[in-house]
């Protein structure tokens, strides 16, 4: 994914953590970077697996509205499947750390994507979040792990 490879998520915040539900991230720390990506919707994927605990999916407000925000399911959230939330990955290891993310602010520090209440977050980035919600946990960096080769894939030469 181009966002991860470009460092978009590095030094960003888990701005919406709702205990027993989701941990959401995906707003760049620099509002200028966020602004560049706001006009680039990411095409929807079909729902091929359930929003099980540890899966990762794009947040959205409806079909064709996925941008940069993602969430990690903290529980089995199968109810999201019928709404078109398509998991695109899974936490490979460290789910016990995800479970300990600070959830004291709940939806207050960045919820409201569907209600249009993210203006200050998008305009202020890390500066605003750090001033208003100093206990939020940070993503230091995001790296993608390549999937294991399929049994029919040729083995690369040594």
Description of the structure:
- By secondary structure, the chain is an alpha+beta fold.
- The chain has a single domain (about 1-140), classed as Cyclophilin-like (Cyclophilin).
- It is about 20% helix and about 15% strand.
- The chain has 4 helices and 7 strands; from the N terminus they run H-E-E-E-H-E-E-E-H-H-E.
- The strands form 2 sheets. A 5-stranded antiparallel sheet has the order 2-3-5-4-6, with no helix packed on it.
- A hairpin with a 3-residue loop joins strand 2 (about 15-20) and strand 3.
- Helix 2 (about 30-40) packs antiparallel against helix 4.
- The longest helix is centred in the last third of the chain and has 14 residues, at about 120-130.
- The protein is globular and about 40 Å long.
- It starts with a helix and ends in a 19-residue tail after the last strand.
Write the layout of secondary structure elements.
Blueprint (H helix, E strand, L loop, with lengths): L1 H4 L6 E2 L2 E3 L3 E4 L5 H8 L16 E4 L11 E4 L13 E4 L4 H4 L20 H14 L5 E2 L19
Antiparallel strand pairs: 1-7, 2-3, 3-5, 4-5, 4-6
Helix pairs in contact: 2-4
Task: Give a short synopsis of this structure.
By secondary structure, this protein is of the alpha+beta class. It has helices at 2-5, 31-38, 95-98, 119-132, and strands at 12-13, 16-18, 22-25, 55-58, 70-73, 87-90, 138-139. The protein has a single domain, classed as Cyclophilin (Beta Barrel).
């Amino acid at each position: 994914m181009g966002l991860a490879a470009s460092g978009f998520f590095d030094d960003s915040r888990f701005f919406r953590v709702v205990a027993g539900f989701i941990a959401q991230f995906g707003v760049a720390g620099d509002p200028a970077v966020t602004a560049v990506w706001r006009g680039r919707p990411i095409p929807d994927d079909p729902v091929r697996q359930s929003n099980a605990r540890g899966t990762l999916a794009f947040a959205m407000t409806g079909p064709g509205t996925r941008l940069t925000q993602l969430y990690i399911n903290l529980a089995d959230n199968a109810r999201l499947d019928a709404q078109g939330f398509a998991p695109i990955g899974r936490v490979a290891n460290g789910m016990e750390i995800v479970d300990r993310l600070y959830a004291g602010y709940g939806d207050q520090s960045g919820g409201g994507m569907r209600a249009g209440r993210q203006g200050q977050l998008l305009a202020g980035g890390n500066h605003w979040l750090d001033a208003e919600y100093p206990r939020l946990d940070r993503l230091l960096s995001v790296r993608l792990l390549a999937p294991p080769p399929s049994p029919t894939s040729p083995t690369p030469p040594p």
